[in-house]
Amino acid sequence: MAKSVRQSLYYVLLWLISIAFFLPVLWIFLAAFKTKEQILAIPPKWIFTPTFENISNMFSGMNFEKYAVNSVIISLSAVVIAIIVSFFASYSFSRYKPKGTDFLMFLLLSMRMVPGAAVVVPIYLMYTALGWKDTYYGIILLYAMFSIPFSVWILKGFIDGVSLRYDETALVNGGSRMHVMFRVILPQVKPGLVAAFIFNIIFVWNEFLFNFIIGGKKVTTIPVALATGLYKTHGVDWTFIASLSLVYMLPLILMIYFFQRYLLVGMTFGTVRGEV
């Protein structure tokens, strides 16, 4: 009986913590369908007549389609490039084990430890000198570079969990190394690929600093559009913030909801499979 009570209290506590973290998201969702007066009302209005005028004004009053297309193209391109490069690198680290692998893996991960503000100036100068500023390929390569280290760590953990006997069996039976990688190993690490893809798409989709400094009008993404459109002549445009945030967050929320099991597996860095 006592164990059942403790378990019930435990779940109640988890629900309260989850609700507390979800309240800001819920506020944004509701605010997208409120007027400015309702958004700023004290106490907050939980019962109101929803309006779609905010979302309609967002689509008609700014280049939302351009910013959304930029976000999709840049995010998908950078992450796909990073996943392809990371798969080859992870297989090499896992199977060939070059000298100093542990140190090289540490160096890769250390790239993610450095804050973006510490490297934005030299990268800006380099991009300006090379003429890569305000170009799709420039910003895509930058995001791919930042996405590769974390992807290598995730995928190496998955490939390490696949027995070496699979490789040996395929090679003995006449398979090439590319056959081993794409026909034998790749199907077994698909959860890792999905996990790495989602983790990195979240990072690139939400990245602001480099797109704001190195990007330009041609490659502006939604986070930069959200920040630059924050203030109007009459002050903070809360209806714009709420409506754009709603449309901006929905794709990630849906993606995480449908692929959350892969995220859980990705955080465990793979599973150990049996011998053949």
What keyword list fits this structure?
single chain; mainly alpha; MetI-like fold; two-stranded antiparallel sheet
Q: Supply the CATH superfamily name.
A: MetI-like
* Total DSSP E strands: 2
The CATH architecture designation is Orthogonal Bundle
- State the distance separating the first and last CA atoms: 46 Å
> Which radius of gyration do the C-alpha atoms yield?
23 Å
The ordered H/E elements are: HHHHHHHHHHHHEEHH
Strand order within the widest sheet? 1-2
- CATH level 1 class label: Mainly Alpha
Rounded mean pLDDT score: 85
How can the largest sheet be summarized? 2 strands, antiparallel
**Overall structural domain count:** 1
Helix content: over 70%
Q: Name the overall outline.
A: globular
Structural class: mainly alpha
CATH topology: MetI-like fold
Query: Counting H and I runs of at least 4 residues, what is the number of helices?
Result: 14
Provide the low-confidence segments as ranges. Answer: 270-276
- What fraction of residues sit in β-strands? under 5%
Can you walk through the features of this model?
There is one protein chain. The protein is built from 14 helices and two strands. With 276 residues, the protein is mostly helical. It has a single domain (62-267), classed as MetI-like fold, CATH 1.10.3720. It is globular.
